[in-house]
Amino acid sequence: MFQIFVSSWRILELRKKILYTLLMLFLFRLCVYIPTPGVDPQAVSKAVSGSLLGIIDVITGGSLEKYTFMAMGITPYINASIILQLLQVVIPKLERLSKEGPEGRAKINQYTRYSAIGLAFVQAVGICYSFEAGGNSVIASSFANMQWFAYIMIGVSLTAGTALAIWMGERITEKGLGNGMSMLIFMGIVAKLPATAAAYVDATKNDSRLWWYVPLILAGILALIVFIIFVDLGERRIPIQYAKRVSGRKVYGGQSTYMPLKPNSGGVLPLIFAISLLSFPSIVTQIFAVNSGFATFYKTWMSSGTWGYAIASVFLIIGFAFFYSAITFNPEETAKDIQKYGGFILGIRAGKPTSDYLKKISRRLVLFGGIFLTFIAVVPMVARATLGQMDNSSPVLKLALTFGTTGILIMISVSVDVTKQLQSQMVMRHYKGFLD
Q: pTM of this prediction?
């Protein structure tokens, strides 16, 4: 991988893309340190550490805990994407737009951006209000007599941060390397690691036994990295044979190839969607019914690490994996395309038998991918039980959550995606130079 980056650095166009991506990520991290007016950062940090927002704080790189300009990050954009994808099933107009190619997808992306801006304002004000209702005075004392004005400033500031983060992500996708939204999440997770490791080292001063957990954590991280890379690079190759056809004096076809199907085609998206959906009810209850029975039930039985959270994660991750596969891979259209160009799968008749065969293979792969993501999500819960019944402030538990949930999966997936993009662009330029 390092050799690929070294080789790509020698190509002017790829070097510009790498520098553009690094510049955007650097500006994104700078914005994380811009304070939000009207907020007491220490009070917010205390409120976040004892709530269900810890996982979102890991994704945002610690911005939510400090409630800075980028506190919402691209979380509203993820929630808006979930809502729009679910609405495509029930609203015919959105379903038609999703099938209209690039123009339709561009329109849906526009709706997603507008929805994300609205959700960002509601979530920014709602989370702050929920902290106040829960007894945590997070509004700065200088705005004690003008809380309504403080809420407006907080909402506008954090909404602007989300809009800027979305813009940066889209620019990285367009002019840089990799998927911009994934790169921002990747940067947030990586930025969180030094502070977590420093907290762990500080904790060892009070309890020297924590050093004994280091080999266990490192061995678990290494095993997860190997397992994730093995699954991420794996593929099911379906052999396809194209029949020969004669047109004039030329003979076309007659070649064998294969169609690769990924076991985890949805990547980390089903896992992120499940985490966002599980955290959404807690945010709503903290805004509108902080002391209700449902809020107490959800905090007791559906907080991170509980059996209810684990069971719900399993069903949601597998469900989102099947849902994402259904909207990205159409066996009927694929079978028609194969038949249109004179191809057929060895041992399978063209037409409906081919689509049924592809559907069966796709379902098995999606089920495997869902189980794989479920395993990644459950590992931190197992780590919590293995390392002892520790509270949420434990540095060992923080390190396990940072690496075990979406952390390693996002970092490995983004790294592999960027490496593949660099490889493909280098190969393209190699052939272009050869033809010239």
A: 0.77
